[in-house]
Amino acid sequence: MAEALNMSVDGDDEWKDEPLKIPHRDENEWENTHPLATIAFTVNKNDITDGHYVNVVKAIKWWRRTKTPDVEGPTSYPLEHIVGQCCPHDIDSVAEGVTRTLEELTGQFKTEAMAEETPTLPAHGLPKTPENDVLKQIDGVDFAAFYDEAEDAADLARTALEEEDKETSRDYWYQLFGEKFPPFGSDDDSDDGGEKAISVGSSSQVEDPSDHQFAASDS
Fold first, then answer.
1. pLDDT given for residue 179 in this prediction
2. ∠ Cα 203 219 42 (to 5°)
C-alpha cells in the first residue's frame, strides 16, 4: 500500500498531500480519508514505543475478534484508531502496552460510555469535523457495550501482568486471549529473561496469535 501511495500520477505528487475519498459500502456514500497521514502516524507511534505499538494493535484486535464477537461497537480500523489514541508511549512490552491501553481507554471514555454516547475521534490528517469522525457510524449503546467488555479486559490484563507466578500469569492471559494462547511449558513458552510469551497476528489482518511473539515483563 505504501509503495502504491508513493507512486506519482503523471509526475504530479500534489495528490499525496490531499485527502482521498473512499466509498462507505454500508452508508452508500463517499468518505474522506488520508492514507499517508494514517501511515505516518503508525510509523511514528511504532518508533516511539520501540516497535511495540503494532503488536499492541494486533493483540487487541485478536481479543476483540475472538472474545467479544457478539458485541457491537468499534472493530477493524476504528478499533485501531482507538488503540492509537490510548496506547502510551513509554511501554516496555506488548503485554504492558495491551494492559495500559485498555486502562487508558476505560479512563478516557468513561463519561461517554456511562451516557451511552460515542466519543468523537477525528481522522488523521483531516480537519476536525463531524464528517471526519472515525467513530461516527457507531451507535452510543453499542459503544457502551464494547466499553464494558474493555473494562473487564483491562482488569484481567492488569492481573496477568502483575502476577509473579509464570504459570498463573499465563492462565490469566489465556482467559483474555483464548485457546490459541500457548499453554505453560509448551514449545511456544519463552523464558527470555523471565518473560512470559504469547503470540499475536498482523495489524492489517487478524491472524492466529501463534504467528508473532508477544512478550510481557514479569513485573
1. 73
2. 25
